[in-house]
Sequence to fold (131 residues):
Amino acid sequence: MVCLDTSVLIALIRKDRAAVGALEAEAEKGGVVSTTPVNLCELYAGAAGAREPERELSRVDELVARLVVLEFGAGAARRYGELARAEALRKGPIGDFDMIIASIALQHKERLATRNVKHFGRVPGLEVEEW
Fold:
């Protein structure tokens, strides 16, 4: 399974060739594609503020219907607490939303596909790949 970060979700909505190709490769391997509630919040906020919000909200809805949305439960919250104290992130924080995204992916033992590898790559234990 692979969890998609907002940067990849946006690329898919825009039909970016690299992102679509990575998604197709994952599908060929039989991989399940997921995201987090935080990523959905970011997508919907962006769509609501677009020049054509109804059109963008519809595009987001269409993509979201094809994804598994991972639960943000007590286990992920505990991981967030651990990450908040991780030395690698205390020296250079990545922000609460991104730590929650990373925590959820870690809890569900998923890789995180992102366009911000440098940023998420500092999260201890998180397997990150660039799409």
Q: What stands out?
A: The longest strand covers residues 111-114.
